[in-house]
Amino acid sequence: MIRRPLTFMRCVRDCFIRHKPALLFSGTLLMGALTNGPSSAATINSQAINCGFSNGMGGNWTEVTPLTSSTPVGAILWQRAVGLNANYVFGPASGNVRHELVSAGYWTGGTPLPEGIAPTNVSGIGFKVAVNSSDGVLRPITQSPSPVAFEKELVQYDSSAGQNQRSSLATNYIQYLILTVPPNQLPSGKLTVDRVDGSAQLMLYAVDLLQGEARLGAGITIPPTNIPNGICRTPYPLMGPAIINMGGGGPIVVPNTCEVEAYRTLPVDLGRFAISTFASVGDTSPAKSFSIELSRCAANARPTIMFNDKYAKGSGASLLQLNSSRQAAQGVAIVMTNALTGQRITYDSREYEMQRVGDGARIPLRASYIRTGSSEELKAGDADGAAEFTFTFP
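User: That's the sequence. What structure does it adopt?
Assistant: Structure tokens below.
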């Protein structure tokens, strides 16, 4: 008699890594000294000159919505926070006239950007940027006739610190990657977003204006005057990869993997058969149908699977060998067939495509015992085999 089940052992690669939520803190600590007498320091109204930008405060891209075949159009796939500083020097004192340094920006004309969503190098994935202003309002940057004010602060300094001290205005941006087409319309294969496409330009500004001339969320007019010399009228244009890389963002690789349960064993019971079932070499037992499945596949995932014979490593044959224990059957092996193609599975480096079904993927298989030996070689006993398999995501 041939007894005991066939067990397939799973070998796993490229599992999803779940990101834990994180808090990104930003702010300023102000330290002062206590004094026992009146202070001679005075607050001096000034003007912002010699503006420049620095953006070393970018966070990491984090996944918001996994990209699967059921992800809705308009979903935010990834996002990151970027802190951009407008650095400046205090210019001449302005007496009783108060100035504000204003952070502003807009998308210029060119490629139309519905709802402020720009195309990227991956067709079907768009890029959007918004500003989390200090008044608590999240303002998307859109195509508009003029720059829109997003942040501002009074240009003042303490006379005891000296007129040449520097300061900076921080503006907190949030970048988004947004799905703009149904997932089945995305390009196949690996998706890497590395630039914003189109002719529209993200134009940011640091502008010195009189207090009250700028209102957060409203358009501003950049004065044509340049007095005093170097007064801030500073543009910061961004296009292509520079927009994605603002604050060190870098390319975003959209996962094309599936969720895999690690170290899971899939048992397949081929049944109990008498030696007389196999009258001639090549005769098989009735086939047992089963399948290997993956879940929560990315929309562009095209997984493949490769098999290896656990007990005859490197054989490359199309027959799965039995475990050669003292009680093992002899003259018999296991044959496994790909139900999608009808072809026998081989145990070498060949990769077999899995069938996408909704958000999952599967390969249907059939397995049976097959006689390989002569009458003298046949022996009843345990008939255990094991195939290791590996998933890849091209």
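The chain has two domains: 2-13+258-392, 43-254.
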